[in-house]
Amino acid sequence: MDEKRGYVQMDVPMPQDMVAYLAALSARFNTCNTCDDQSNGFSKLVQAMLDVLMDSEIDISGCSSEDEVVEMIRDGFAKNSRLSR
Q1: What is the DSSP letter of 31?
Q2: CB 56: neighbour CB atoms within 10 A?
């Protein structure tokens, strides 16, 4: 069975500081420094972050801007000790 079945490839533009942060974190998951390994590490981190957000009770459906989304997620983490370990 193809492990990637049901996955969608996406390009997500982001600021350089976020890319650097993901690179530093993903280095922990990689055994070599090829571009594919870095991309795989980035994907795994983003998927993990989205899993946590999806499992949380944080509701961002009414947000109309990126700043509102960030604020709602931060507030949600601050209020929920289970998520702010």
Answers
A1: S
A2: 15
